[in-house]
Amino acid sequence: MFVVNVEGAIHRNGKWLLIRRSEKEEHAGGMLSLVGGKCEIEGFSSDILERTLIREVFEEVGIKVIDLKYVNSSSFVTQAGINVIDVVFLCRPESGEPYAKSTEEVDGVLWMATSEILRHQELPEYLKENIKLAEKAL
Q1: Domain that holds residue 98
Q2: What pLDDT, in 10s, does the model give residues 77-93?
Q3: Which residues 6+ apart lie within 8 Å of 61 measured at CB?
Q4: At 11, which CATH number?
């Protein structure tokens, strides 16, 4: 059984929105990441990945995203042994300025250019790869 997670590669003015995950988070607490979260069980539904991403971005950083475009999918196992399917979408903010709306999940927000992300020593390779793929999809 998998948990399904969605993430937004949110692009604006040549930069990508990253969050610093809350230290309270069980998985990757304190790390920089894209914005996103887990799909909830809905029974029969459509567009669950897109709707989940729109909801999670608003809950975590207070903005609405539009123009969602599939980038890639991957899988990983958390430190707790949970199998996760991760789906990344390219998108852009419709309006507003992101902020750490959900302090349980987000400690801060920042915008970084692709070159900054790729040079950053502390960012995981999967994040760098997702940004490279999203950059190609622009």
Answers
A1: 3-137
A2: 988 899 999 999 999 99
A3: 17, 19, 35, 98, 99, 100, 101, 102, 106, 109
A4: 3.90.79.10
